[in-house]
Each structure stands twice: as structure tokens, then as C-alpha cells.
Amino acid sequence: MLTSEPVFMIFIITCHTLSFAQISSMQKRTPADSMTMMTEIVLPNDTNVFGNLMGGRLMYWMDIAAAIAAQRHCNAPVVTASVDNISFENPIKLGNTVHIEAKVSRAFHTSMEVHLKVWGEDFTQQYKYKSNEAYYTFVALDPNRKPRIVPELVPESEEEKNLFEGALRRRQVRLVLGGKMNPNDASELKALFFK
Ligand SMILES: CC(C)(COP(=O)(O)OP(=O)(O)OC[C@H]1O[C@@H](n2cnc3c(N)ncnc32)[C@H](O)[C@@H]1OP(=O)(O)O)[C@@H](O)C(=O)NCCC(=O)NCCS
To answer: How far is the first Cα of the chain from the last one, in angstroms, to the nearest whole number?
Structure first.
């Protein structure tokens, strides 16, 4: 009986350690917890024939910045589930710096919406200009590559609260467009049109 006690104690400690780890990985997070800043410089190989940053290259960098933010939120590997409409407001010139800010704007069950803002910076003229904004959606995966539950997001600032509110509608738009939701079930969207 005495010899089995230490083994029993180790078993209990291991169980507790595991459950503490699981609990801590599911604790609520704020957008600041996932905040990710990426900085790049536009080199000749990144540009189109007009000497501007190619849209595809920018979307690639945005995908990486957003994936890092999503992974910071859920502490798990993620895959891109969808990318919302991106409109390029201002081109970013060869030699300019690109700043990408990514933060989780809402967490659902296994998916997270990440909000991105992009600026260009011209060092010689000393000014910064907004290039575009976008939303990417990521799904967290477990070791069997199946979707896994993500921690809740608690918005703090007024801007974060507005993004959080709007995320339900944006989710329904992308699920309807992706053929994953019946438009009749998109209650948030319908409420916009039928009061
Ligand atoms: C994204 C993916 C994991 C979803 O898997 P699935 O079997 O469809 O899983 P489910 O239907 O249970 O959906 C899981 C979550 O994904 C979300 N989702 C699925 N399709 C989506 C879409 N088109 N847009 C946004 N979210 C989507 C669901 O809403 C759900 O989120 P929730 O749990 O928070 O409600 C799967 O489709 C996949 O692996 N896609 C390829 C990802 C990839 O390779 N990306 C790299 C770029 S090609």
C-alpha cells in the first residue's frame, strides 16, 4: 500500500497539471492579447509594372500576420477558412514600408475573425497613409486536424466593441456566400433589412 502512494500522488498531480493547462488555455482573451504588427519593405520583386506593391503579395503578408494573431488568441495551429472582400484604397510604392496590424475581433466556437489594417509609409516624404482594411477568418485545429474550441474574446475599447458587434453579421454574410448557411437562418442580417 505504501509503495503505491507516491505513484497515486504523481497521478493526481499530473491530472491537476493537465486540467490547469487546459483551463488556462481556454481563459478569456482581449484583442490586445492577439495584437500582431508586421513590417515589410516593398522591393522590386514585390511590385507590378506600375511600381506598386502587388495585391497578391500584400494578401500573403496579411494572411501570415492574421494567422499569428489567431494563433496567439487560441494557442493552437490555425487554417484560413475565408477572406472577406479586400479593396485597395491607396497603392503602396516601391521602397515604401508596409505596416500590417492584426487583432482578433471576435471568437466564435472553433473559428475566429481577425481584423487587419494596412498602412504604407514613405520615409523620404515622412508620411503614413492607409492602404486597406480586411477581415480574415481562421479555424483552430486539434492534433487530429479537427476544429477545436477557442477561448472567448472580450473587447475593451469602443472600436473593439463595435468590431465585436458587427462580427456576427459579417460571419453570416460569409457563411451564406460560402454555402454554409441557409439565408433564412441569417437572423442578424435579416434584422438589417426587416425591422
Ligand atoms: C476551415 C475548415 C477547417 C472547416 O472545416 P469543416 O469541416 O467545414 O468544419 P465545420 O463545418 O465544423 O466548421 C468549423 C468552423 O469553420 C467555420 N467555417 C467553415 N467554413 C467557413 C467559411 N467559408 N467562412 C468562415 N467560416 C467558416 C464554421 O463557421 C465553424 O466555425 P464555428 O465553430 O466557430 O461556428 C475546413 O474547411 C478546411 O480545412 N479548409 C481548408 C483550410 C485551408 O487549407 N486553408 C488554407 C488556404 S487554402
So the answer is: 71
Cell of 21: 493547462
Q: How far is the CA of 179 from the centre of ligand 1 (A)?
A: 12
Helices (H), 50-178: 55-74, 158-177
DSSP structure string for 35-68:
-EEEEEE--GGGB-TTSBB-HHHHHHHHHHHHHH
Rounded to the nearest angstrom, the distance between the alpha carbon of 80 and the centre of ligand 1 is 8
Nearest CA, atom 2, ligand 1: 81
Instruction: Domain ranges for the chain, please list them.
Output: 29-155
Q: Which of 105, 112, 116 is nearest to 165 (CA)?
A: 105
Its CATH class, for the domain covering 29-155, is: alpha beta
Which tens digits make up the pLDDT trace of 123-160? 999 999 999 999 999 999 999 999 999 999 999 999 99
User: Tens of pLDDT along 158-169?
Assistant: 999 999 999 999
Atom of ligand 1 nearest to the CA of 150: 34
CA atoms of 130 and 120, how far apart (whole Å): 6
Atom 24 in ligand 1: residue holding the nearest Cα: 82
Cα gap 166→141, rounded to integer Å: 25
